[in-house]
Design a protein that fits this description.
Layout lengths: L4 H15 L7 E6 L4 H15 L5 E10 L4 H13 L4 E6 L13 H18 L4 E3 L4 H14 L9 E3 L6 E3 L7 H11 L14 H14 L3 H10 L11
Parallel strand pairs: 1-2, 1-4, 2-3, 4-6
Antiparallel strand pairs: 5-6
Helix pairs in contact: 1-6, 2-6, 5-7, 5-8
Length: 240
């Protein structure tokens, strides 16, 4: 019997949660609600698991609304999260207003400021984990960007445990491909917000995505094999 796309995503999230022990009993998880398809599919999946008794955790969404975000986005997010049974907090942050004189606005600055505020909020409100919607393609693109730009073998880890305070960053969508996210989001009728701020500088990631697709031929097996190779490093056959 052929599995539906919803069942496929559900199974991959379960596998990621179990493989890296992402969620602990009675965790308080703060979901990064960006407004994009990735975080929406993740939030809906976690909410479904909680409703079915398969996830012992409290879920709360946080949307960081910057100084150029449309207010309609937060209103739409509030309606979606209410339908999933997840409370949504909207926090206004003057991302552009924090720039020092002479500095140019860019995606990295925006994402860093939003991530910082999310961690601050999580710490202040006693959350134990922050869930981000990065998927398998994000992980592989970051891997190759770091190899080609930094000359190091590194990428987004599935779980980040901070040493100074009791908070973890978790990525439940770690094994889910972007094409699966798109298919499920389309099937569910989830509206994805695309950044139209005018500061978008994702050309490097876009070009890396094209290189990964060319390298793998779009093969799911090839992509998963690349990820698995990071867990099976044969140091004997690598330069020291």
């Amino acid at each position: 019997m052929t599995r539906t796309i919803g069942q496929a995503v559900d199974g991959l999230v379960v596998k990621a949660l179990k493989t890296w022990d992402m969620v602990r009993p009675r965790d308080r998880i703060l979901i990064g609600a960006s407004g994009g398809k990735d975080s929406a599919v993740m939030a809906r999946d976690l909410a479904l698991k909680k409703r079915q008794g398969r996830l012992d955790a409290e879920l709360v969404g946080l949307h960081i609304r910057n100084d150029f975000s449309p207010h309609e986005l937060s209103e739409r997010l509030a309606a979606e999260y209410e339908a999933w049974g997840i409370p949504l907090v909207v926090k206004d942050v003057a991302v552009e207003g924090r720039l020092k004189p002479g500095r140019r606005m860019n995606c990295y600055w925006c994402s860093t400021q939003r991530r910082t505020e999310m961690i601050r909020y999580a710490m202040a409100e006693g959350f134990t984990a922050v869930a981000l919607g990065h998927h398998l393609d994000d992980v592989l693109e970051t891997l190759f960007m770091n190899m080609m730009r930094k000359g190091e073998l590194s990428t987004m880890p599935p779980v980040v445990c901070y040493r100074k305070y009791p908070l973890r960053i978790i990525r439940p969508m770690y094994l889910v491909e972007e094409k699966q996210v798109i298919e499920l989001a389309t099937e569910l009728g989830l509206v994805s917000a695309t950044c139209t701020c005018g500061y978008n500088d994702r050309s490097e990631r876009d070009s890396t995505r094209e290189r990964v697709e060319a390298l793998t031929g779009g093969s799911s097996d090839a992509k998963r094999a690349i990820l698995e190779s990071l867990r099976h490093v044969n140091a004997e056959y690598l330069p020291s």
